[in-house]
Amino acid sequence: MPQTSEPVRTIYTEEWVLARTEVERLLGLGSIQPFGRAMDQLEAGWENIRDLESWSEERELAPDMHDAEDAVRWYVEVEVVDLFRWIAGETLQCIPRSNRTLVSASIEDLESEVEAFRRNLRMLLLAVQAESVPVQLRTLAEKHAAPLVEWSVRYGETVVSIRRYLDAAGIEEDC
């Protein structure tokens, strides 16, 4: 778990801590490497998401979204942060637990949502170029969203390795 201040909405839930502990235990036994890599990558991605979420939490969202900053804040909250947190949660559901031959996640859904996340980041980077978007917001988005585009490509490759691992281990999806 990070030493920095976390926003209210984070990936570091009790479920995350339990899954991380289980993955570390299984890695010690020489198995489930794609899951260790996935959790490491999610933690690295969260470093960028955390700042976007903290920025979003510091502002009141106007219900009618009259200005560009409100619209971008909503987009960041729903289409970037919420989706990242969904990806993290769905990944946790893919981790095999003791004596389980099923996982409660859909790898196909996970793959498609990682792709959607990448598209949403690209849309965010385009949206913040509008003149009406404050420079501070544009700078924040460019600093954090651009690296996440590359992160999403690598994470998509990790999801493919998770699929291969589950297939080779005979673990099926329970969705």
Q: How does this structure look, described?
A:
By secondary structure, the chain is mainly alpha-helical. It has a domain at 37-94 and 105-168. It has helices at 14-28, 33-57, 68-94, 107-127, 135-169, and strands at 102-103, 172-173. A two-stranded parallel sheet has the order 1-2. The model has no long low-confidence stretch (mean pLDDT 86).
Show the helix and strand layout.
Blueprint: H1 14-28, H2 33-57, H3 68-94, E1 102-103, H4 107-127, H5 135-169, E2 172-173
Parallel strand pairs: 1-2
Helix pairs in contact: 1-2, 2-3, 2-5, 3-4, 4-5
| Nearest-integer average pLDDT | 86
- Order of adjacent strands in the largest pleated sheet: 1-2
Shape: elongated
Oligomer: single chain
Order of helices and strands: HHHEHHE
C-alpha end-to-end distance: 30 Å
* Strand elements, count: 2
Task: Give me the Rg, rounded.
Answer: 17 Å
State the low-pLDDT regions, or none.
Answer: none
Report the structural category.
mainly alpha
Give the % helix: over 70%
Biggest sheet overview: 2 strands, parallel
Percentage of β-strand residues? under 5%
* Helix segment tally: 5
